[in-house]
């Protein structure tokens, strides 16, 4: 059966109710901790993006090591989560959004496995977030009776760790952004390069700067996360339990890490 990876963002540091055995995976980008588990006969590998103790800020996450580790374990489908701000008044705090597009405003992150001199590769990102995973998440939400969720939206990724200015948010809205966060890129790009389906459950914790009348604090993010985390955890478990084995998306699975040469 297809193996799943779950990447937990802020507030999601384990899979509640699921036994996890922590293992260390050696990658060309360093050692990575991964939690091995099983859900209804499916192998699932859990990874807290910011570390088990939330010790890594967004711009310091080892994105290449994390994705490489999951790919080397045979993962083909990834469900990620991330806390984000909303640029769209239709998506208030407490809402879940499954992005289908992104805008990349990161600045200094290694963002590709194809970094060896002399190797040129151009990865198609027309549909970056897997439509099949997003569809199955929506089915799970419907089964749970959870209505505050939307399939589709543009996620703006900023470098961090600072929050955005009101002027930046105004610009991102003009460009069509719906959400703003600091973690989806390069994660989604690397997953595509490694031949995996990837989708993200974006958890709206606040309205972005200039939209909200109040100054945003990290405590506000954590408070909202504590309220919504149990729902997101259940949503992920339900999605994996009921996921059909047949692949119906066009995400390429024919890429092998063995074909990607990296500088160690």
Question: What can you see in these coordinates?
Answer:
The protein has 264 residues and is of the alpha/beta class. The protein has a single domain (3-249), classed as Nucleoside phosphorylase domain (Rossmann fold, 3-Layer(aba) Sandwich), CATH 3.40.50. It contains 5 helices and 11 strands, in the order ββββαβββαββαβαβα. Strands 1, 2, 3, 4, 5, 6, 7, 8, 9, 10 and 11 form an 11-stranded mixed sheet that branches. β2 and β3 form a beta hairpin. α1 (63-72) packs parallel to α4 and α2 (131-144) packs across α5. The longest helix is centred in the last third of the chain and has 24 residues, at 218-241. The chain is globular and about 50 Å long. The model has no long low-confidence stretch (mean pLDDT 92).
Q: Class in CATH? A: Alpha Beta
- Strand percentage lies at 25-35%
Order of helices and strands: EEEEHEEEHEEHEHEH
- Secondary structure category: alpha/beta
Radius of gyration using CA atoms only = 17 Å
The separation of the N and C termini measures 32 Å
State the total count of DSSP E strands: 11
Reported CATH architecture: 3-Layer(aba) Sandwich
Estimate the mean pLDDT confidence. Answer: 92
Largest sheet: 11 strands, mixed
Helix count equals 5
Helix content: 25-40%
Coarse morphology: globular
User: What is the CATH T-level topology?
Assistant: Rossmann fold
> Any idea what the CATH superfamily is called?
Nucleoside phosphorylase domain
Low-confidence segments: none
Q: Structurally, how many domains make up the residues?
A: 1
